[in-house]
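Students often ask why we bother encoding 3D structure as a string. The short answer is that it lets us treat folding as translation between two languages. Here is a chain of 555 residues written in the first language.
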Amino acid sequence: MTLAGWTLIGLFLAMIIALARPAGAVLFRLYDDRPLHGEALLHRLLGSDRAEQGWLAYAAAVVAFNLAGIALLFAILKLQGVLPLNPQGLPAVDSWLAFNTAVSFVTNTNWQNYGGETTLSHFSQMAGLTVQNFLSAATGIAVAFAFIRALARSGVATLGNFWVDVSRIALWLLLPVCIVLTLAYVAMGVPQTLAGSVTATTLEGAEQTIAVGPVASQLAIKMLGTNGGGFFNVNSAHPLENPSALSNLLQMLTIFVGGAGLTLTFGRAVGNLRQGWTILAAMLVLFVAGVTLLYWAEAAGNPLLGLATNMEGKEVRFGIAATALFAAVTTAASCGAVIGMHDSFMPLGGLVTLFNMQLSEVIVGGVGAGFYGILIYAILAVFIAGLMVGRTPEYVGKKIEAREMTLAVIAIAILPLMILGLTAIASVTAAGLAGPLAAGPHGFTEILYAYSSAVANNGSAFGGLSGNTPFYNATLALGMFVGRFGVILPALAIAGGLAAKRRQPVGPGSFPTTGALWIGLLTAIILIVGGLTFLPALALGPIADQAQIAAGMTL
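And here it is in the second language, the structure alphabet:
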């Protein structure tokens, strides 16, 4: 570990904290009920109903919208061979792979069982994947807005209008910001062209064909929307997708800024910014602990090889600290982008990336998804705290009762049920065991990582797993779908119940939900309830792997 490495990590944290407040203000303007310029005309042209919806109607709109997105993207991938903007002449995508990819991008997962530049045409990348990057991110933020309204409003039956929310977020936030980001990336050297490739002459005099395309525009939304699906197979490790240390820092900042900003939007909405800062602090406590362990594990080296540091799988242009930070950011924020190969990390480093995803996507998390995820844990934490000290279980003035607790437990249980269940099936079936490249604990970790990444809607790959098979395409798609909507639906049901309750002024009988005590309690509940569930599986995988290395053994 070096001073320069810690300086990079400290600078990143300082910039995120500084950006959180203005980002929160921008998001609050979209959350607010005041109409935006041109919004009424847009909805009149579309013929969309702007009336507010109860939680059931809001949830039905979310599901219908996303099911339609899956069908549309699947059709684009299957018709790729006859659609325009296909300079490479690429054929239709295999049906199982097309299904997996469609579910992946609609659920904001962006799991890629394919090589982007060798499998998908420019039309598929732009009209298919990039469009869903915008819409899946907008869906997550819209659900977060609905949850915030439930806590901010008093005695109402509605949560807003999904069609208004999703169009506002996509057209007035994500699109204009991504235009600016695209121009910035182009200035840094990222390609943005409809050409299929360029030919270069190497120093040896040979000709090399280099794939290019509309890279910068997809890069902008893949990071801002915490999607993670790269234009190139090696994602942000590709020099044309991530040409410099500056572009690398910009990518990490855009991954975190939306999730961090939503915490301050929440604080504004409930009339107490300290509530927002407290949620952000809890997120950052978990993040700092993770990145510290990851950086230490990779900088410590591999005793089996007698190396002082472990450079295997790292982005050599940026070094160990930047690679560790990038891995911690992307797995904490539910963004599948990578610059290092997690399969080549030391087992403890790989454990951090796994654990980040297994904590129910709450350490900043996917835009919107991380915020409503941590609010579910906050509801659970305040209920437990109330039982322990004999105080009324309420959160920002809303009483927490049996219905909210039941739904919160369902939402929290979905991830371990799917991750561990699918991992168990893959670990004992011939189709599942045909996937991992490694044997022993490391091979088990490859399977566990794949389902953790899918169900947590992260999308990053551990590496070493051959996932482009009917078994993995189908089971990973199932995990992605249930992991997304199995949390969204209980979250909206909780929001519907809370919105109908009257906000009560905070009194002496209320448990305080700001300050260091609450931050400690919230993080402890997340670690105990969300994290310890996975301890047996982690013991069989990365922990056993690390023990083998310490004992001088390898498989």
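Translate back mentally: Residues 539 and 545 are 9 Å apart (CA to CA). Keep this in mind for the problem set.
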